Structure formats: C-alpha cells, structure tokens
C-alpha cells in the first residue's frame, strides 16, 4: 500500500478533483455537504479559527496494487485508521473512492484544523504514515511495498505529479529513469553508454574529484539537469557500475565521448561548471590566468563543426546552464545544511 500526502492551501481545488463526475464518489465523511462548493464552505468555517495557518489542507491518496482488491467497508476501515494514526480524529474530512485507474485507491481531504481550533501536528508525518502502511499491509494481507528509504527509484515531487496529471506526460525524472534502465539492460562500457544516451537526447556529465578520478554523474534531458542520486539510489555512479557500467578509473586530462567533466562539489555527486584546473598552476598566478586556465572545456566532441554550428552552440549553452543551475542548487543546499526540509509533499510506500 502506498500513501501520498500533499499539504496545500485550497480545499475547493482538491474537492473538485476528488469528486469529478464518473470518477469519484464519497465513501465516508463527517460533514453535511455533498458538492465541492458546499464542502469547501464548511471547511472554510473551521479554517477561520486559525487564519494565520497557510497550509490547512491535507490531501491524501491511499492505493493498493492493481491485482488486489478491498471492499468499501475495508476502505472505510483504512481511512479511519489513517485519520486516527495521523492525529485527525477531531478534524473534518471527506473520503472518496476512485475507479478511474488500474490501481484501486481512495482520496482523503482533511482539515488540519480541528473543530476545537487545535492544529494537528505534522511532525514526522511521512514517516508515521509509512509505518501505518506496513501495518495495514499485514492486517489486510496485502503485498508488502518496499519502504521509500530503500527504494531504488526516487518518487515524484508534488510539482511532477501535478505536471503529469495536467499534461498526461511523464516528468523528466521518470523519462531519465526509463531511458537509463533501458540503455543499461546489458553491461556497457562508459563510452558506449553515454553515446547511446545521447542518441536519445540525454547529455551526461561526470564529476571529477580533486584526485582526477570520476566520482559522480548527472544527466540532462530537455534542458533539465539531475544528479544520479536525484533519480534514486540505483542511478548513482557507484550503483551504475554495479549494474554493469564498466569504466577503468584513471586520471582524466580529457573528456570521454559524449561526456563533459565537472569540478568536484561538496555533495560528492553534484556537477560543477565545465572545465578543470591545470595541475601546473601556482598559488601566485594572477586571477586572469586562472580564469583562462579554467576556461578550457574538457570533453567536447572532436567531430568537425557542422553548418549548424550556431544552433548546436546555443543548444550546448542551454545544457551547460542547466548543469550550472544544478550545481548552484547543490551548493546552496550544502551551505544551508539544515534538517528542516520542505514538507509540502511526500510519498510513503
């Protein structure tokens, strides 16, 4: 069983989605309204007790495997267990059952503000709901899903889910995972791997440690760059080698076909700007000389320039910018170094 939790600002939008005609029906509720408008008005009356709380909406989906089935009474029991376990016993809620996808699932729209004006705690909420999923799997004799912290693929963010729902298209993260999995079905050396990825529109950049050895990898598709670890544990540099990617670790003074080399970043997996420092630089060299040295571009293709040189240069510039944005994000994340990460979305397996 998988639980997906999103905290948001608007009740009406969540209710409109859950109660679409021929898609969802109310399974259980402790409210009087029947339509999204009526229910949103009721939610709003209690929300007024805490006007300064920005995210009062808790929107949850609970799903099981396509080959499993629960009857309505069992789904109601699941919904009530979730509400109790997450501290929503005194909160307004609407549980709806959806039959529009292959995997059976229900949705919960919950007001985090209770009828007594107290706000349900969201501390460790994703961890708490994940432990409940494991418990319900045993109680209902459902398939055990691998915990998210052990999953080889990273789950989708709220933005990626909303994009996929809105456009019907997979996110860049999903596409990269699929392309890499398909390409690496059989063992490949690094040159062949990166060339096959490039044929599918994926650019690869290797992270070069200060020792000169490759220590990380990232990918760019549709001008969006992601570290291997952003795709999941199965896509880091070490994991790819365990999956059959072969590469002889030697110091690199030039690029690998289809790849560029980036300077090492604190995260160990992030990719910096193209280029590298010359080992012959001395500490007293001028900043101008350092800039010139760093300007060397490692790993550029050695093929002759085509007539479409400007277009290719522009495309490469955009790709470089995507990798540079990724590097800046990683650097900022390292500097903040705080455990208080965004808690606006989450996926528990």
TrEMBL record:
Region Disordered, residue ranges: 146-168, 246-349
Polar residues compositional bias, start-end: 270-284
Keyword Ribonucleoprotein: no
Key words of the record: Coiled coil
Entry-linked InterPro entries: Endonuclease_MobA/VirD2
Biased segments, Basic and acidic residues type: 157-166, 246-256, 287-296, 307-343
Keyword Nucleotide-binding carried by entry: no
Name of the featured protein: Relaxase/Mobilisation nuclease domain-containing protein
Species this chain originates from: Desulfovibrio litoralis DSM 11393
């Amino acid at each position: 069983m998988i639980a997906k939790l999103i905290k948001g600002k608007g009740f009406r939008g969540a209710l409109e989605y859950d109660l679409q005609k021929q898609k969802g029906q109310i399974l259980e509720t402790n409210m009087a309204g029947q339509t999204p408008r009526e229910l949103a008005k009721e939610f709003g009356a209690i929300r007024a007790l805490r006007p300064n709380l920005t995210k009062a909406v808790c929107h949850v989906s609970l799903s099981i495997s396509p080959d499993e089935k629960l009857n309505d009474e069992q789904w109601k029991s699941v919904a009530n267990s979730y509400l109790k376990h997450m501290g929503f016993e005194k909160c307004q809620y609407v549980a709806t059952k959806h039959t529009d996808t292959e995997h059976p699932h229900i949705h919960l729209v919950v007001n985090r503000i209770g009828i007594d004006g107290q706000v349900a705690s969201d501390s460790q909420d994703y961890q708490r709901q994940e432990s409940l999923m494991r418990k319900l799997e045993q109680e209902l004799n459902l398939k055990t899903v691998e915990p998210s912290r052990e999953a080889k693929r990273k789950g989708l963010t709220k933005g990626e889910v909303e994009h996929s729902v809105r456009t019907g298209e997979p996110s860049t993260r999903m596409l990269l995972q699929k392309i890499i999995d398909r390409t690496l079905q059989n063992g490949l050396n690094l040159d062949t791997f990166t060339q096959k990825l490039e044929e599918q529109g994926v650019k690869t950049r290797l992270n070069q440690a200060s020792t000169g050895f490759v220590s990380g990898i990232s990918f760019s598709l549709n001008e969006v760059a992601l570290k291997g670890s952003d795709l999941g544990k199965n896509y880091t540099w070490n994991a790819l080698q365990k999956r059959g990617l072969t590469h002889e670790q030697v110091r690199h003074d030039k690029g690998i076909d289809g790849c560029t080399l980036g300077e090492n970043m604190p995260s160990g997996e992030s990719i910096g700007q193209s280029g590298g420092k010359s080992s012959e630089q001395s500490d007293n060299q001028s900043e101008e000389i350092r800039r010139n040295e760093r300007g060397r571009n490692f790993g550029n293709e050695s093929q002759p320039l085509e007539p479409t040189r400007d277009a290719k240069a522009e495309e490469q510039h955009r790709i470089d910018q995507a990798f540079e944005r990724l590097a800046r994000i990683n650097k900022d994340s390292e500097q903040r170094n705080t455990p208080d990460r965004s808690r606006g979305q989450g996926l528990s397996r």
